[in-house]
Amino acid sequence: MNTETARRFRRLGTLTIFAVYFVILVGGIVRASGSGMGCPDWPTCFGQLIPPTSEAELPENYHEIYSVGYANTDFNVVKTWTEYLNRLTGVTIGFLIFLTLWASRVYLKTDKAVFYLSLSVFLLVGFQGWLGSVVVKTHLHPLMITAHMLLALFIVALLIYAIARSQNDSLRQIDISQLPSRFKTVLTVAMGLTLTQVAMGTQVREAVDLIAVHHNYIDREYWRDSFPLIFYIHRSFSAIILFTNLWLAWKVYQSVSKNNLLLRLAYSLVGLIITAILAGVSLDRLGMPPIAQPIHLLMANLIFGVQFFIFICISYAAKKPAAIAASQT
Known about the structure:
The protein has helices at 3-32, 62-65, 67-70, 77-103, 112-137, 142-166, 168-171, 183-214, 229-255, 261-285, 292-317, 322-327. The radius of gyration is 22 Å and the shape is flat. Helix content is 72%, strand content 0%. It folds into two domains: 1-166, no CATH class; 173-329, Four Helix Bundle (Hemerythrin (Met), subunit A).
């Protein structure tokens, strides 16, 4: 195998993973700011490849032409360009995914699964683009928005697995001999808890979207008065998430060396969870600051990504060749 080509694949794949997380952040900003219908049509924006910067550039009857989303709202340049930049970010990810797929050709002779994982991601990103058009056509239907976000989470998981699989020889050398036998089981439970929390979070966001529309995206300090019961369940559930992952991080800290990849991942996991909780507290107690919602969403996605990567590392490390295992005992 061409080592440089393999290295290029890993670099592109890693860059693409960060790009997908970035578009999740941008998507959260779009949703929190009510910019989802900033462009009332798709794939163009007001029928143009580059959207207008002022209402003067639109026809006088644009309310009638684009009645959905603009029937009772004047043109808003900030919302329009926020949504447009969100779309441009999505297109950029499409190019990165294609380059990642192209670079994965090197694994066709050694590990075809890496190539087919990359191909699956490429196809799913195309489907994700189509689903984005459905989100617009269904007038930002909450279920479509949630499906759009969950698919992004799945795409990231496939990318993480593809990149990890491409360097499984290195991951097999990780020393997990001192980790408790139930560690992987608890980690699996923690991932399930995170997915449950994300599912509840989508329901909370759908409720918040309706509350935001009711308040015309102003008077945020009063939104909390209308929060549904699921919000309080979601808030309390975060304590279970925190303590479960603290146990995982503590066991890693006790069991591995300071330069072990797992320790760095454990520190990152705890930091992400604390940041997510702080963002959630600010939503609850500080009048729903606009930036807190997308940060909260991004942290939830990153938490699952780190947990999944730790799971892959543990799985490969458990399959290390006998010679390596003997040298670590």
